[in-house]
Amino acid sequence: MSEAKKISLLYFAIFRDLAGKREESLTCQASSPHDLYQELQTRYAFPAFGEHLKVAINNEFAAWHDTIQDGDTIAFIAPVAGG
Amino acid sequence: MNAPLFSISHEPLNCVALENLVRDPQAGAFVSFVGWVRDHNDGRKVLALEYESYEVMANQEGERIVKQVCAEFNVLHAICAHRVGQLALGEVAVWVGVSAAHRAEAFRACQAIIDHVKHTVPIWKKEHYANGDAEWVHCHHCATAREE
Question: What ipTM was estimated for this complex?
Answer without folding.
Answer: 0.94
